[in-house]
Amino acid sequence: MFFGCFDQGRSSSKPPRISRRSSSAMTTVCGLLTKSQQPVPLKGISVDVLVQGFIADVVSELRYKNEEKTPVEAVFVFPLDDEAAVYAFEGVIGGTRIEAQIREKKQAEEEYEDALSEGREAFMLGREENTSDIFTCSLGNLPPEGEATLKLRYVQALAPEPDGAIRFVLPAVLNPRYVPQGSEGTTVTQNIARVPKGQLPYTLSLSATVESTYGINRIESKCTLEPLRYIAEDRTSAQVSLAEGHQFDKDVEFLIHYEDVHKPSAFFEAGKPGVAPGSLMGDPALLLTLYPNITTSKPGQNATGEFIFLLDRSGSMDCNTDHSQDSPLRIQSAKETLILLLKSLPLGCYFNIYGFGSTYDSFYPQSVEYTQKTMSESLERIKNLKADLGGTEILQPLKAIYSQPCREGHPRQLFIFTDGEVHNTNEVIDEVKSHSNSHRCFSFGIGEGASTALIKGVARAAGGSAEFITGKERMQAKALQSLKKALQPAVTKISLNWDLPPDLEAVVVGSGPQVIFQGQRCLIYAQIRGQHQSSHSTEGTAVLHYAIQDQTFMEKAKFSLSAQEKDRFPVHRLAAQALLQELDGAEEMDKKHLALETSLSSGVVCSQTAYVGVNTELGKPIQGPLIHRNIPVAYQGFSSAAASFGGMQLMCSMPLQPQLYAQRACRKVGILPKRGKLSKHISPKSDRFEPRLHGFLCDEGGDECEELEEDSADEPAEKESPLLNLVSLQNVDGSWLLDSGLARILGHTETTLSKTPSQVAPNVWATVLAILWLHSKASEQRDEWELLEAKALNWLQVAAGPQLTDCVKAGNALLGTSVSPQIFGL
Fold first, then answer.
1. Comparing C-alpha atoms, which of 435, 431, 434, 432 is closest to residue 443?
2. All domains of the chain in start order, with CATH
3. Of 251 and 195, which is predicted with more confidence?
4. Are strands 350-356 and 360-362 parallel, antiparallel or unpaired?
5. Would you say residue 426 has pLDDT above 60?
6. Sign of the torsion angle spanned by Cα atoms 799, 801, 807, 808
């Protein structure tokens, strides 16, 4: 969650103002903590989480101690989810509590810089300019032997997983943002020191309280947890915590399983005392949570549409999904996903596949009809794709896609796969938003550290949905789940009615929801205006109406109008965040003014504001340099390294490994490996961009990675799974051919398979055998082949005839399976 690298101290006796908008005032020396032996003042992080339904309220405390002989400035950079609202910041320095105030960003920067110049202790928190999911916090003038505790509060809306589990993540991984060659300036993530995994100088303690009126079934995590403890007999409240001594070197994730997660709920919250009625914070607020369990028929196999797949082929896609050698490469998972998606498309549609990095390319000049010929051509090209396009620039391929006219009667569906490391997030989102009336966008963030601002932002901008693939999760299942959404009609014609006492009215904050997909939760915020009379009812009801094609549905949620006053106001903060997300980036002066006013009144940080806290006790002007100590992050992957973006040097101290590992390390930073020999000597002062690995040298621009010592074995080819091999053999209409390839997968000779049941066509027999194999050998991956099976079954209904029953019976006997004939509609 907190990162950085070491900066040289200022040399003047009185530090000048430091511009937080540019790093040019600093000379950066990026290396490894273990080599520099510089002390880092962060001693520990403790986090307290309160989860209520789909809301997480988080308090993070950071404890510092300056063990140096001079004052230091500690700077850390951390990611938060795109939907998180930072609403409070305070510190205790030398026993004095200082509550930070939210200000316009320029004013906050000036107050902070003036305080440092005067020798006062101060701290500041602000959001990065070009993205909404990265924050920077600075603690200045921490005196020798001085101790400080900073406390950050934020509230976050939580999203469900495909199985209905509610997912809370405390991010630890902050990916560097790629800066295109020739761009001016740097990004905040450029100055990030990396230390070997397990060697962070601080630990994390985390405890969570989970509450739900519908009951808590269980809580799961990839991290080691203390046993779950229920604190209510009806299991509506429980507590869980991380095991002691947790190293914060990977994301902390909780999967919370509720008993009745699909039931709609309403959370009423009283207004903030002392704030004038009529304002967002002064009036009561309501959160309506909708997670409908929509049951619809299977997606039609003749659905029209244009499906465009945009695949990240930058160098970072050639590293492992969860940074361990036993997990698949991101590019390999993406290729397998593309094959499954391609095979699952409906007849009659159009499609195209784009790849992007520093440049971009496409399979076809424009989308082509989905035929046996185009599918086969595309399949061969997918198998040969590599992560060989350098950096990560997504804007130009998006513009190229949008420059192509949409096909009438074929609504456009865009699928974006990326590890989300771009520098111009807001610009990308704006481009998608400007074409939102002509398409839907489904986005996928690959690996820990993918930008939630980018992934969620593009999906939200074009009425789609966002998914994240972390750890050993399979990209294929989540991608196919989204394709099912794209093939099904969306929930539309959403409207709300309110049953409230006559003296009250509900006003939805922002534009409200336009679409809900199956498996997607929807949060609606409302401001309750008016003066409630005690003689009237103390209950209200929200009534939601929506349609799926020609069917209409209704959901109700009741709520009490007598809520206890609380000090955190999570619903109000999230409502403000939802409004700020709509207003962010607006050029109109009235919208910019509304965003600033909303941020200042709610305390939720936006691009125009920042928090600043200053110790008003008289300080002493600094004598000598103010030393910077930025907080490092564990390196995710090899034994140690520093990221290499925007001209920053990649330094790896790892034993000589086979070329495979060196190639993957280079690709993480957008570099395409190439073999050769060069001198081992690399000058650390060279102007040339020379990331160094033991035995390899990587050139600027992602062009080459040359071997310094003896050649090693070439990278082994990835082995395809039997499932993928079977899928690859399927025809565009859903059938399989009876050939040697199918025989090899089924474990029989082609001669044996050729003995088809009486009056059964060979391709009918082959298709039945393939479906039987899927159910018996790949049942755990059903989400990945369900759509292509539906295509095969549709084909069989037309082609098989009355012999299908005998065919299924014979197939089960041949393969030794016991798949029910009901699978075939028998």
1. 432
2. 6-260+604-630 (2.60.40), 285-296+491-562 (2.60.40), 306-487 (3.40.50.410), 654-718 (no CATH), 722-824 (no CATH)
3. 251
4. antiparallel
5. yes
6. positive
Average pLDDT over residues 559-571: 81
How would you class 759 by CB atoms within 10 Å of its CB: exposed for 0-12, middle for 13-18, buried for 19 or more?
Answer: exposed
Residues 6 or more apart whose CB falls under 8 angstroms from that of 765 comprise 738, 753, 756, 757, 807, 811
Distance CA 281, CA 85 (A): 14
- In the chain, the amino acid numbered 39 is P
pTM of the model: 0.70
User: Looking at per-residue confidence, does 414 or 585 come out higher?
Assistant: 414
**H-helix or E-strand containing 63?**
strand 55-65
- Are the C-beta atoms of residues 428 and 394 closer than 8 Å to each other? yes
| More confident of the two residues 562 and 255 | 255
Query: What's the pLDDT band for 379 if we cut at 50, 70, 90?
Result: very high
**Residue from 528, 537, 544, 529 nearest 501 by CA:** 537
CA 736, CA 584: separation in Å to the nearest integer? 51
Q: How far is CA 160 from CA 99, 252, 557, in A?
A: 35, 16, 19
Question: What's the mean pLDDT in 38-56?
Answer: 83
The token duo for 786 is 């369900």
pLDDT score, position 443: 95
Question: Which helix (H) or strand (E) element contains residue 609?
Answer: strand 609-614
DSSP 190-250: GS--EE-TT--S-EEEEEEEEE-TT-EEEEE-SS-BPPPEESSTTSSEEEEEBPTTB--SS
CA distance 183 to 708: 30
Spatial separation of the C-alpha atoms in residues 87 and 99, rounded to whole Å: 12
State CA 173 to chain mean position distance. 11
The total of other beta-carbon atoms located within 10 Å of residue 366's CB is 13
Do residues 450 and 175 make contact, with C-beta atoms less than 8 angstroms apart?
A: yes
Rg (C-alpha) for the chain, rounded Å, is: 29
**Tens digit of each residue's pLDDT (9 = 90 or more) over 765-778:** 999 999 999 999 99
Could you identify the residue written with the tokens 């924050």? 135
| C-alpha to C-alpha distance for 418 and 130, rounded to whole angstroms | 18
Per the DSSP assignment, residues forming a β-bridge with 241 are 207
- The H or E element containing residue 580 is helix 570-583
**pLDDT given at position 316:** 84
Residues in CB range of 211: below 8 A, 6 or more apart:
50, 51, 52, 53, 236, 237
- Which helix (DSSP H) or strand (DSSP E) does residue 453 occupy? helix 452-461
Residue 81 pLDDT grade (very low, low, confident, very high; cuts 50, 70, 90) = confident
d(CA 655, CA 658): 10
Q: Give the range among 1-10, 95-104, 166-175 with minimum mean pLDDT.
A: 1-10
Mean pLDDT across the chain: 78
∠ CA 359-365-371, rounded to 5°: 125
**HSE (side-chain half, CA atoms, 13 Å) at 96:** 14
Residue for token digits 């969650």? Answer: 1
Helix, strand, coil percentages, rounded to 5, for the chain: 25, 30, 45
Give how far Cα 296 sits from Cα of 68, 104, 300, 493, 549, Å. 65, 49, 11, 17, 10
pLDDT of residue 613: 95
Neighbouring CB atoms inside 10 A of 538's CB total 10
Question: Is the pLDDT assigned to residue 396 strictly greater than 80?
Answer: yes
* Residue carrying structure tokens 């565009």: 732
pLDDT band at 345 (very low <50, low <70, confident <90, very high): very high
Rounded CA gap, 516 and 583, in Å?
A: 22
Helix (DSSP H) and strand (DSSP E) numbers for the chain: 17, 39
Residue 528 buriedness (CB in 10 A; 0-12 / 13-18 / 19+): buried
Mean pLDDT over 60-65 rounds to 88
Q: Which residue has the tokens 């002493």?
A: 620
